[in-house]
Design brief:
Elements: H1 11-23, E1 40-44, H2 46-49, H3 71-79, E2 83-85, H4 93-100, E3 110-114, H5 122-131, H6 134-150, H7 152-166, E4 171-175, H8 193-217, E5 220-222, H9 255-269, H10 279-285
Parallel strand pairs: 1-2, 1-3, 3-4, 4-5
């Protein structure tokens, strides 16, 4: 969720929007005939792929840390929905647009998107404030704050526009990030309560920017923070992995976090009216609106 990699210029995202609008669909993936089961596409970063759950599909040969214990896999299995599992560790908004979205079939019925932490460089803020100098910490904090305030909202709106164009009938939700820190001290992390609160505030601001982008583009927003309130780091029953595990898994939701926190929240959001595609999209396509996810018949009880 907070792995940081070099980002391309936002111009790549703008160009992708223009290309998609002109072409109608990404050429690499032709439109497919409708199938009896609704499709589900999971887009985003390591928070969506399942980094932190400990076991990864194909031995993690692709480096994406996709897991059968991640919320996309859990929901797809529950409802026997074909899953386009495109989420990948380290993803930013441009990589979702360039590398993930072209794999989404145009007849997809449900889409979840969890991305933005890498674009906001939250990983740098946590790492510098944990292990570097106070000056480096403050600089990283200021950089993340500026990105969230000035860049993330516009980037998100552009990406959501692309997603709506790609799969116009889909129910779409943005998945917010849980707060990592509880304010308590323990052996698993080295930040005092004040710094934990400051870093949580970055996540709060990122979530608010995501929520506003969702409202502006007519998609749903998944609020995950309440479910994790009693399960942050140093709590009696943490759903977030500590910083002293494998570096690439640290500070990500564990299996319980996906099963008990994220999956139910995403399921509820994909069943809410806010996630539904505009009725005019269905009318233009001559298709019935995609039903709420909870209206489908579960494969397991």
């Amino acid at each position: 969720m907070i792995t940081c990699r070099t980002r391309r210029s936002v111009r790549a995202l703008v160009l992708a929007v223009a290309t998609l609008a002109a072409a109608g669909t990404v050429a690499a993936t032709p439109a497919r005939a409708a199938e009896p089961a609704y499709r589900y596409a999971a887009l985003g970063d390591s928070g969506a792929s399942g980094n932190g759950t400990g076991e990864y599909i194909g031995g993690n040969a692709d480096g994406c840390y996709r897991s059968e214990y991640a919320y996309p896999s859990l929901l797809a299995a529950k409802y026997s929905i074909p899953l386009t599992f495109a989420a990948c560790a380290g993803a930013s908004m441009w990589s979702v647009a360039d590398l993930q979205l072209p794999h989404v079939p145009t007849d997809t019925g449900y889409i979840s998107l969890e991305v933005g932490a890498n674009d906001a460089q939250l990983g740098n803020a946590v790492n510098y404030c944990s292990y570097s100098t106070p000056q480096a910490c403050e600089q990283a904090f200021a950089t993340s704050s500026g990105l969230i305030a000035n860049e993330i909202p516009g980037w998100y709106r552009q990406l959501l526009t692309m997603i709506r164009q790609r799969a116009p009938l889909a129910r779409v939700v943005i998945v917010g990030y849980p707060l990592m820190f509880s304010g308590a001290s323990c052996a698993d992390q080295r930040l005092d309560a004040t710094m934990q609160s400051r870093l949580n505030s970055l996540t709060d601001r990122l979530n608010e920017a995501m929520k506003q982008a969702a409202a502006a583009t007519g998609v749903g927003y998944v609020e995950t923070r309440p479910a994790f309130t009693s399960h942050a780091l140093c709590s009696p029953d943490p759903w977030i992995l500590p910083g002293n595990v494998q570096p690439w898994e640290a500070l990500h939701p564990n299996r319980a976090g996906h099963r008990l926190g994220l999956a139910p929240a995403v399921e509820a959001a994909l069943s809410s009216p806010a996630s539904a595609a505009p009725s005019r999209s269905a009318a233009r396509a001559g298709a019935a609106p995609v039903p709420a996810l909870a209206q489908l018949e579960p494969a397991t009880r």
